[in-house]
């Protein structure tokens, strides 16, 4: 035992929604749970139990921040299970600083959330960080979904939109046998249209001019 203070909360695996969490009150129960974890083929974590008054859900979607207070009315020690009263509260500056710091720690998350447990002594404990798999709460869920859709669309426009075309430059002729053949073809087949038949004098007109010339000479 590295932390003999009880009770503690033992969490098995990466389950959420209150699943896989067990409150252990003494060393005997802890050893029983250790035997269960030994055959579970997964990891587990142990953390001090907080006798909570309520918990706080802080979420960040782009530049939109919200905080919700959730208080259990079913008497369960798990504040996120059973019946609970949910209320959206004002966003204290420290909550905004906390979630911004978490966003920066993980490379600048646009969507993330914090789970904060408030003990009966008033102390606050951050017990969980969620990325885009956060749970939307309250009556503003549709608004939050629109914020997420707008954020994703804006990111897609900024990243996936093709860049403006660059001014085209003349492509140099290819090198090799094909390039040489193409150059010869372009020389032998000029784009200038061949002269029409009317551009060349006919034989009859040539002869006529010659005969006229002879007549003019003889008359002189």
TrEMBL record:
Summarizing the function annotation, the protein's role is:
Neuronal phosphoprotein that coats synaptic vesicles, and binds to the cytoskeleton. Acts as a regulator of synaptic vesicles trafficking, involved in the control of neurotransmitter release at the pre-synaptic terminal. Also involved in the regulation of axon outgrowth and synaptogenesis. The complex formed with NOS1 and CAPON proteins is necessary for specific nitric-oxid functions at a presynaptic level.
Q: Which Gene3D superfamilies match?
A: ATP-grasp fold, B domain (3.30.470.20)
- What protein does this entry describe? Synapsin-1
GO cellular component annotations of the record: Golgi apparatus; synaptic vesicle membrane
Q: How does it assemble?
A: Homodimer. Can form oligomers with SYN2. Interacts with CAPON. Forms a ternary complex with NOS1. Isoform Ib interacts with PRNP.
What the entry lists under PANTHER family is as follows: SYNAPSIN
Record's keyword annotation contains Glycoprotein: yes
Q: Which GO BP terms apply?
A: neurotransmitter secretion
Q: Highest taxon of the source?
A: Eukaryota
> What Pfam family does this protein match (any one)?
Synapsin_C
Compartments where located: Cytoplasmic vesicle, Secretory vesicle; Golgi apparatus; Presynapse
Recorded GO molecular functions are: actin binding
Against InterPro entries, the record matches this protein to: Synapsin, Synapsin_ATP-bd_dom
Q: State the signal peptide span.
A: none
Give the UniProt family note.
Belongs to the synapsin family.
Q: Region (Disordered): which ranges?
A: 163-220
Q: Does the keyword Kinase apply?
A: no
Kindly report the protein's main subcellular placement as a broad class: cytoplasm
Indicate the segments forming the Synapsin ATP-binding domain, all copies.
Answer: 1-157
Identify the keywords attached in UniProt to this record, alphabetized. Actin-binding, Cell projection, Cytoplasmic vesicle, Glycoprotein, Golgi apparatus, Methylation, Phosphoprotein, Repeat, Synapse
